[in-house]
Known about the structure:
The chain is α/β, with parallel strands linked by helices. The protein has five domains: 1-137 and 339-369, no CATH class; 371-561, Rossmann fold (3-Layer(aba) Sandwich), CATH 3.40.50.300; 572-595 and 728-751 and 815-959, no CATH class; 602-716, no CATH class; 761-805, no CATH class.
Amino acid sequence: MIYPLIQTKKNQWIQSDDCAVKGLLDYMREKGQLRDAQIEAIEVYLFLKLVGQNKPLAKLFSEGFFSDEIDLRNLPLTESARNALSSNIGARSLFQFSRLQSNGSTLLPELEQAILSHPESVNYKDVFSKIFYNLAYPDYLFSLPMGAGKTFLIASFIYLDLYFALREPENKLFAHNFLALIPSGLKSSIVPSLKDIEQFDPAWVLPEPAGSEIKRMIRFEALDQPKSAKKSNRARNPNAQKVNALISQPNPMGLIFLVNAEKVILEKLELNQQLELIESDDSQARSANELRYLIGKIPNLGIHIDEVHHATNDEIKLRQVVNRWNAGGTVTSVLGYSGTPYLSSPDSVQINQNVEVRFKQITNTVYYYPLTLAIRRFLKKPKIETASGLKPLEIIRRGVKEFYDTYEKKVYGDKTSAKLAIYCGSIERLEEEVYPFLRDKLKISEADILKYHKGNSKYKTAKDAELEFASLDTPVSKKRIILLVQIGKEGWNCRSLTGVILAQKGDSPTNMVLQTTCRCLRQMDKGKDETALIWLNDENVKVLNKQLKEEQHTSVQEINGLKKGELSSLVQRHSRAEYLNLPKIDFYQLRINYETTVATDTMQTDEKLSKLLNALDSYRTSAIVKSGEVTLSADIAYDNIESVSSILGNTARFDLWLAQITRESFNTLSYAALQEQTAILKKIFEKITVKQNGILSYNELYDQDSLRSAIRLSFSPHRELTWKEDVIPEKAELLLAEKLSAVSDHPKLYPSDPDVKSILAGDKNRWDGDVTIKEQERVSEKVRAEFAKQAEQFGWTLPALPEPGLAVRMKEQTLHYLPYDFRQSGFEKKFLEDCLQLADFKNRKLEIYYNGERGLTEFVIHCFQKKNDFWKRLGEYTPDFLILQREKKKPRKILIVETKGEGFVLNFAGRKQFMESDFLRINKDKFGYERFDFLFLQDGNAPEFNLAKLSEKIIEFFN
């Protein structure tokens, strides 16, 4: 959500002269031991620590730290909104926050509208505080997928904090001591994490001798001792004794405590209804509280929490504990880590009396590395098999067979063997169905199988099972199939795990299907193309697809289609604005100021509800069921297709339905008002519900959310907007050079890399295009001549020299930055090349600049559509190309050219009409001549047609 914004600001800082850690970051990249995900996360950490001064996110946003300058003159605002945004930096920051983009649409349109409509009703500082969990300390979440190296990232942050703290001991930005909270209720999860951090080589992030000096001063302690001796009734806390002894030393520094939060920090701790901490008064509770009290006394404490993505009761407790520690003034920062930074149910934030916004993503996520990128770069590439219509044991049979066919002889570089995990929903299913099936039906050797669960009254944990489980990732383990119940979903680091089977619903908790299936993706041998195997039944693959879409913006189909290997290298880009003496563009914008008024007509609720009842079919979708013998997803044969008239949803009750409508109106619609329309509302309710076996349920074929919204609107008076039309002058930069960042290399960058180098060399020597080409040819021939004799002597054939590109010859008339990025449309690239070769363009000494990369230009036009004497805002429009004709170095005439693919023409119709009419008219009136013209070219037309159209427009407009 906020991480793209932070990424942009961070990149600007790193590329600036103010970045004091460039050398340190270059050192990390040169060492080549950390993954790109880890280094990028470190960059964000250093940016927030050094530039953001380690402030809480709510404070940074309230102070406008992430904000860009807004030209309020260009926005269609009411006067009250304009005044609020002009005078209140928090309001301006929240307004920009609401307009962040997610998947091509505005992130929080309700929040944006609340600020625009009723700016006085919003407490901006308070809203930011609520969005970021009302925390008074820096709490940043880093989201990296499983296997990306979160434990080593924690170690990197610890070493960096100590590196800066040793140089500035009094600086409160940097932690001196650390608490690492490790996930899972298993004690065994602490030991591997401790081992990973202890074995981390600080030379990966710090030059010597600094890293080694810090490593010598560090002391690791695992707080995992039992609270009392066996056969003793007296509570004691050896963990507290250990902490007390270490922090009693003068100026303690370099202490790292690893602890399991569930087993130690949250022991004997409860919350009351107000989510405040309460503690029992028994001796065990006092013992547990002693440890919490002493941890709160550790000076300059940096807290690291792994797997913080569940909004569980334990997490709420933990946050309250950290709040209490912070009140003592000892907490420096809290850094969280998660592969899935999403909540099981959305958080809601009240903006004002009428508006509430919801967040599914954890809002303090400051860095995010997608799973698909990790698979392409370093994780195992999974093959996800979807078994439809098969019984669970048949799915297991096929999955086990494919695992043995593919990986039976697979041995990794550390001599560990590939392994397959089969998750079971219950101990009984594991012991009575799956294990006998593997042993008796599939004839799998018992020596290959490990059964591991916590046991129950009927089945005990097998002897040595815990030791076998802990040894799986070693060469001594001969186990190939691991049967698990409620174990190994999170915090299980088994790199040799190569396959996962979830054969039926309940084999994994629904909210953990993604985490469970990803257990087998960890990298084993660096630089190798490694694969993994995942078998899922229908229900689990649907859940996985849903979670992939919501949490990773991908799908099973996309993951199956991924190709291994590094992505394209980055290409640096260069500004030529100074060389070209690129002018600003003077133009006039239409501005519409809206004021809300309530019309005097009656609400006409009866009539509106009657129309809604008659139009219920428009809120209904249709569905079919396809049945038949289905083997795999790729081999589907349907015997029968039948129509479905209803899909049962949640249980329905008329009074609760009315209460929900009232609640969703934020108290603008009363329950009593709804009861006045009981007769017609009951008719609607009966239509959208289904009774089966005596139980009334909602029919999910109706869009229930939209229907409740329509009912609420029926009780609202008709509202109209009044508006005021203004025309304001603008002066736009065609290139915001500070926002010019590197892009990944791909074939649609223009011009080619050799041409870019030639153009930059020509600019440096102040050569025009023709001279640049002559100099390039002269140097090339000289080099060729030097090698000609050797080539003749050894029989070599010298390669032909590349022809200088069109872009080099025309460099005085285009390319205000290098290279242009045309990845979204090859049509744009071809248009530019055709235009540069057009005789009418060259003879008139025109210039053409690509303006279509959003964020790099200020030449953005606000478009409107007038309907029935009312201006409707269509949004911002960033033209693709500008063709300029200069007079005394300033633009005299400007042709705006829009190039559109066939699929985008309809969506652009309103903006096209505005440009061809109102925009041209306004600017002609203001300048006194036709300063602008507009040309629309469609990709579906023949290239010759578009070129002829361009030529005609150039002759007509630039006559």
